[in-house]
Amino acid sequence: MRFGGLLGLWEGARTGNGRVLFKQACPAMTTSVALTIAGSDSSGGAGIQADLKTFAALGVYGTSAITALTAQNTKGVTGIHPVPPDFVTAQIDAVFSDLDVGAVKIGMVAQAGSIDAIALALSHWRPRHIVLDPVMVATSGDRLIAAEAVEALRTKLMPLASVITPNLPEAAALLDEPVARSESDVESQGRRLLGLGCRAVLIKGGHGHGAESTDYLVSATATIALAAPRLATRNTHGTGCSLSSAVAAGLAKGEDLETAVRNAKSWISAAIASADRFSVGHGHGPIHHFHKFY
C-alpha cells in the first residue's frame, strides 16, 4: 500500500501479526563515484584518509585501493609497508567490477611494481578521468617513493592521466631540472611535462614565495593562472592530496577540467584558512576538510 502527503511518498507492508511497517520510498539518485589509489596515513591527515574526507565533503562517494601503509603523524613518516602489487590490482578490480567510477585519483605509489599493476588495471578498465598526483615527498620532508619508481611513474602512469598535479619541486624532479623560479619557467616546465603524455598539468605554487600562491593549469591550448592569498599557517598536512582529490571529485560530478580545478582551488584555500579552528598533533597539522559544515 502507498500513502502520500506532506511527508512525501511512503510504502507500507503488512507483517504476519497484522502490523504495518512503513519506509519512505525515495526516488533513486545518481551518485557520483570516485576512486583513490594511494597510501594510507595513520594520522588521518593525508593519503587515503584525506582523499576520502575530500570526496565526502564535496558530495562524492569515495572508494579506495591502498598501495602502502605508512606509520606517520604530523611530525613525520617513520615507516612504509608497501601492499603487494597483485593485491593493489585486486582492490581496483573489485571497485570497477561493481561501481560506476567517474574519476580516479592516484597518489602515493612507492614501488615500481605497484605502478605497473595500476597502469595495467586502468588500461583495462579505462576510466573517464584520471588525476595523477606525483607524490614524492611528504610535507614533513620524508621521501615517499623509491628512486627507481620515478621513471615508471613518468612512462607508465603519466600517459594515462587526464591531468597531473605536481608542486614546483615535483615538476622539477619529473623533468630532472631545477625548480622553476618565474612564471615563464613554470609554463615552460608545464609544456615539457605535457610532452611526457598527460593531457594537462596543474603545477601548484604552494612552495613558491610572495603574497599569493599561484597555480598554473597548462594544456595544449592555454595556460591559466589561478591565484589565491598565501596563508601563514603550519596546518598544511595533506594539502596536495586533498587538492588533487577535489579535482577528481569535480570531474566525477561532470565538471569540465577548468571548472573542476577552479572549484578545487577555492575549496582548498578555504580548508587551509579554516585549519586553525582545531589543533591536531604537534607538527604540520591537517587542513579542515569539513569547513563548510562546522
Describe this protein's structure.
This protein is 34% helix and 23% strand. The chain is of the alpha/beta class. The protein has two domains: 1-30, no CATH class; 31-277, Ribokinase (UDP-N-acetylmuramoyl-L-alanine:D-glutamate ligase, 3-Layer(aba) Sandwich), CATH 3.40.1190.20. The strands form three sheets. Strands 6-5-4-7-8-9 form a six-stranded mixed sheet. Strands 1-2-3 form a three-stranded antiparallel sheet, with no helix packed on it. A three-stranded antiparallel sheet has the order 10-11-12. The longest helix has 17 residues, at 257-273. The two termini are 40 Å apart.
Compact summary:
This protein is α/β, with parallel strands linked by helices and 294 residues long.
